[in-house]
Task: structure prediction
Amino acid sequence: GALSNLTALESLSLRFNDISDIGALVNNSGLDEGDVLDLRSNQINCDDPRIAILEARGVAVDYLLGCKAE
Result:
């Protein structure tokens, strides 16, 4: 996806975009320590294991507001 190629991102807000698949963000090798990702108010599963992958790389992921509990 297009987001996986934007490796110089430091802060990205994707609020209110009806996103359910964050695979392209996980595949973006440039998202790492100190970067900020706002995924609030989307269709992301609250327990999506890919969120933990991003957080383990040091990305501050804000996603709880509006995530889907399954």
In short: Helices lie at 23-26, 49-56. The CA atoms of residues 40 and 52 lie 15 Å apart. Residues 49-56 form the longest helix (8 residues). The radius of gyration is 11 Å.
